[in-house]
Amino acid sequence: MSGASLDPRLLRKAPPRPLRFSWSDERFRNIVYQVLVVAAVLSVFGWLWSNTRYNLEVRRIATGWGFLSREAGLPIGEHLIDYDPSMTYFRALLVGVLNTLKVAIIGIVLATILGTLLGIARLSKNWMLARFAGAYVEIVRDLPLLLQLLFWYSLLQGLPGPRQAFNPVTGVFLSNRGLKLPYIQWESAHSWTLLAVVVGAVLTWFYRRTVRAKQMQDGQIRSIWPAALLLMVGLPLLVWAALGAPFTIDVPELRGFNFRGGLDVSPEFFALLLGLTLYTAGFIAEIVRAGILAVSQGQWEAAEALGLSRRRVMNLIVLPQAMRVIIPPMTSQFLNITKNSSLAVAIGYQDIVSIANTTLNQTGQAIEGIAIIMLVYLTISLSISLFMNWYNKRIALVER
Fold it and tell me: What per-residue confidence (pLDDT) applies to 184?
């Protein structure tokens, strides 16, 4: 049969059969079923919409988005943008969105760092370190997040007052009023310096790609760190110095019964961030541990045979391969941090859920308020998923 050749007529694609309007035609039946399903779904949504409108009219409940332009009269303790109660509900809801993003972004960064360290620690040859990391993961993951948030908030509320505040480092105070930190007074020169850092990072990325392309062509290894140091450190320092080099540190000081100056971290935000970070880090630790164990032991043995230390083997060989296993489940944990931040209402932190609930209680716009909450979390979740999927494709193996 090896010398035989197939008839070219057998390789031709069969001509498509015409659609017959008969129940015996499978394609016709599939089209009918799909039309019926779509019609049923539209009918259910239409019935729900008409029923909702009827009930709202009977109860004389106003609908619409006009309330967003009305004065809120809602006090908000923490806000990243200017706000006072005389502003509109739209401004208040925007403050809530920014508060949610603040705790979600900082929580994602801190939980990723802590979870990665714990995951590596669980694989350590140090018996005590491995057992401590294992006990942390098991205990934290088995306790409900809400219980942990209430625990940390109660613990912070039980701290001494400002006059007896803990002062572990100069300028840092921890009391029942929250955490007080020194910070640099922000000026326009600092904004331009930050922009220079971003530009330097982008230029460093392009330079790295160019150097890697040349290395693939001639095999010669070139150092990237001198250019990276010049672009990401030298350029911002040059911009900062050219604009007058402002550098004024605002250190908190005890005046009367409270602190003045410095950066104020409220007990509500501190407890929420602490609870989200510690809780999610336990799950991220197991994801990192599983990703590292997915790399074959032969990779370790081959690298150690070349004389590489375990730290360099982990950084250069194991973790880059483990990331392909870590990224997909890590995305779910990032989404969980964002959605779990809605528990902030239990400890008094004013995020989008808290402010939207107050808004709908004051205005009676329940449907619009719930729709805003759903839209905010849907947008944030889809943004995180799109970014993580893009990054996952970037690090995926490309088959040749």
Answer: 83
